[in-house]
Design goal:
Blueprint (H helix, E strand, L loop, with lengths): L5 H19 L6 H8 L3 H7 L3 H20 L9 H18 L1 H17 L1 H26 L1 E3 L3 H22 L2 H16 L2 E3 H4 L1
Antiparallel strand pairs: 1-2
Helix pairs in contact: 1-2, 1-3, 1-4, 1-6, 4-6, 4-7, 5-9, 6-7, 7-8, 8-9
């Protein structure tokens, strides 16, 4: 019988863990529950990961990478800074709406990190800050704008807005209100920038 490559096992276990957390909560995501979901043995788990904690750390990093792909600007040609910020927020909202249990799982994983792995929680939000800062910088350069306040402050504001958007939408699933919130958020963020040519 062919052995499953370790990278493939790790990917399968990560996907299974996210499914378990999304459907039943982090408390239910025991090692046994994870391997049952992945249709693997406990021995296979320990061949791929040293511990459940290691798996959860890797999983948080994987989910951050997925969210980066959801908001990263892909087409900046001929667009205003407002267009780019709004499209990034709308992309995130679509990502949220497409798989609510996934985002609920991410909230639980963040709470886990805050309680058990403070450094991991810090790194998670540092990663968010890096990717949002990069997206905002790309947007400003592409549109001939510059930020009137430090870019990390703008990035933190945007992260704060998306955190609030996530939680409130998960509570009430009000798509129309969420759309109006991202429109207002885009206007608020862009108000912190100015056209470089106009200001010299």
């Amino acid at each position: 019988m062919a052995r499953t490559p370790v990278d493939e096992r790790r990917r399968a276990l990560l996907a299974a863990t996210l499914r378990v957390v999304a459907s039943r909560g982090l408390a239910a995501a025991s090692t046994r529950a994870i391997v049952a979901e992945a249709d693997m043995s406990l021995a296979s788990f320990h061949y791929a990961f040293d511990s459940r904690d290691e798996l959860l750390e890797v999983l948080i990093g994987e989910v951050v990478a997925l969210e980066e792909r959801a908001i990263a600007p892909t087409d900046v040609e001929g667009k205003s800074l407002h267009d780019l910020v709004y499209e990034g927020l709308r992309g995130y909202l679509r990502h949220l709406q497409a798989d609510p249990p996934h985002e609920l799982a991410m909230l639980e994983l963040t709470q886990y990190a805050l309680r058990e792995k403070t450094d991991l929680a810090r790194e998670q939000y540092a990663a968010y800050t890096r990717l949002v800062t990069q997206a905002l910088d790309i947007g400003a350069q592409a549109t001939g704008a510059h930020w009137l306040v430090p870019l990390p402050t703008v990035a933190r504001l945007l992260i704060t807005l998306t955190d609030g958007l996530t939680l409130t939408w998960l509570v009430d699933r009000d798509d129309e209100l969420a759309e109006s919130v991202i429109a207002a958020a885009a206007r608020a963020v862009v108000a912190l920038a100015a056209d470089t040519d106009a200001t010299g």
